[in-house]
């Protein structure tokens, strides 16, 4: 993809922001992607009304997470392992609140830490979503990149999960929405915003990372694995020729995975 000089410059700015530890928004206010864009503008494949089936206020398991049988049925009909995808989305949409990190801080919580605190930012939401599906054969990707709103020209670094349905149609999964509107067809979301990935990891590749991660001093494993993609050993989808950025992602992933496995 050919980018205009301005867009190339913007990509470099956003990449710098990522390396500086900014994720989800360009300020440090507790404002998430859902607050900025999803409210009233996400994708709702089912109606928010009580019709043929009850829309329960609380889950049958006694949790405070709402349950939407229409949305559950849509997930089951749309995706392989749709019931598990529904449950994973419920948690990141309704049970986790967005929390921005202070300047020069970029701590990647384990899924357990996010579930316990019920707070996190974009990558914490994505890791929690992934953890609920990690043992399944899911057609999806973890994506690091940047998002630009076409109406306001607001651009910010972001991490999201890309999911594919039974027919190969791509969807973007977003947390924190507090609504049943955060699994959005890619062609719908691209009408109002532009997403440019910088690194994409397949679902099974993340499982490989988890399996192979071992606690090596001074992050030797993370450095070794990050260097392996340069040698062509793995087919990572790299969209920017920024080795430092990719190595930093692998280092942080390694640290988080070791704590997660512990």
Automatic annotation (TrEMBL):
This is Transglutaminase-like domain-containing protein. It comes from the Bacteria. It comes from Candidatus Brocadia sinica JPN1.
């Amino acid at each position: 993809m050919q980018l205009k000089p301005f867009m190339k410059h913007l990509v470099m700015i956003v990449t710098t922001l990522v390396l500086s530890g900014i994720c989800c928004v360009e300020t440090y206010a507790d404002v998430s992607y859902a607050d900025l864009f999803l409210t009233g503008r996400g994708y709702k494949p089912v109606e928010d009304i009580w019709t043929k089936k009850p829309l329960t206020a609380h889950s049958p398991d006694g949790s405070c997470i709402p349950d939407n049988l229409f949305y559950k049925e849509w997930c089951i009909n749309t995706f392989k392992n749709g019931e598990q995808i529904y449950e994973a989305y419920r948690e990141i949409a309704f049970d986790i609140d967005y929390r921005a990190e202070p300047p020069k801080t970029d701590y990647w919580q384990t899924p357990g830490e996010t579930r316990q605190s019920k707070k996190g930012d974009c990558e914490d939401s994505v890791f929690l979503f992934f953890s609920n599906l990690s043992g399944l054969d899911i057609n999806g990707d973890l994506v690091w990149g940047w998002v630009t709103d076409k109406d306001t020209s607001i651009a910010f670094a972001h991490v999201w999960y890309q999911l594919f349905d039974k027919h190969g149609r791509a969807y973007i999964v977003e947390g924190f929405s507090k609504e049943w509107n955060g699994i959005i067809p890619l062609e719908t979301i691209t009408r109002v915003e532009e997403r440019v990935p910088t690194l994409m990891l397949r679902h099974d590749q993340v499982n490989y990372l988890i399996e192979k991660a071992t606690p090596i001093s001074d992050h030797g494993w993370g450095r070794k694995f990050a260097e392996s993609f340069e040698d062509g050993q793995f087919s990572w989808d790299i969209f920017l020729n920024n080795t430092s950025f990719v190595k930093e992602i692998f280092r942080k992933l390694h640290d988080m995975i070791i704590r997660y496995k512990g």
